[in-house]
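Hi P.,

Sorry for the delay on this. The queue was packed all week, but I finally got your sequence through. Input first:
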Amino acid sequence: MTALKNDRFLRALLKQPVDVTPVWMMRQAGRYLPEYRATRAKAGDFMSLCMNPQLACEVTLQPLDRYPQLDAAILFSDILTVPDAMGLGLYFETGEGPRFKKVVRTAADIDALPIPDPEKDLGYVMDAVRTIRRELNGRVPLIGFSGSPWTLATYMVEGGSSKDFRKSKAMLYDNPQAMHALLDKLAQSVTSYLNGQILAGAQAVQIFDSWGGSLSAAAYQEFSLAYMKKIIDGLIREHDGRRVPVILFTKGGGLWLESMADSGAEALGLDWTCDIGSARTRVGDKVALQGNMDPSVLYANPAAIRAEVGRILAAYGNGSGHVFNLGHGITPEVDPAHAGAFFEAVHELSAQYHG
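Then the structure:
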């Protein structure tokens, strides 16, 4: 494989020295970019875009072409590819978000779920990883990802997005045995899926636990974190002669950083509700931290964006182990020039913290 020209993202995840704080952004290939909207229109719809390796590669590279400051590319895909490959029939309703033709509510439903083979059942994702990695040609590292078992389970049980997760939580409390069976099957599927991405060329992986923060402290440990630990334990950790770092991101997980830091992941993603300086004190030298600017700051003017970047960098302080990111994904209405101001500010203002 081609040598990396810019590896500061991987170095920061491993708490190795860097010249400036690396930066990337969740949903960096997204609807805020006119070039992305044009490619998506060409594909016809979102899933057609995900399932076309050439077009998925095209949109993955678009933000890198526009913003030379970006220190990583992230695979363009969706967290719900795994349940789709389990036969649930993913589709998107305009204005409603993702939906499944089949839902999972009973022990029989769970027993019937297959564990997808990454190359046979999710080959379009593996082909996208290989295509992107080839086209990157060592520019920056490529991040692979998956949803967490709990997050995937909520969509599968609810049949789509939910504000209160009442069916998922009812199953969790009424029939914990069934929920554990579902989560176990999902943990096996995600482990295999992420290992497939690593073998295809992903150089770091992120587990998106979008809905872990909806759980009580006790339920989070038992029904979300335990299964993410299981995945991390089963991942390929060395490939192409390098460590493959794992980032664990639980939105709303600021209360549980200490136990997340014991998961075996190299880094924790932080949303914008916790202070990165106090998070660093709490986790010590165990893990790197990724985050954590409020995505809404990007609606403000470039001077205000720069000030907030400066505040977060100062809160983290000196030394490596920080990957700058938003606390969640960029929103479609953001002015692309504001994203550019954000990336520039991170590199310009962070050099002073790396001696």
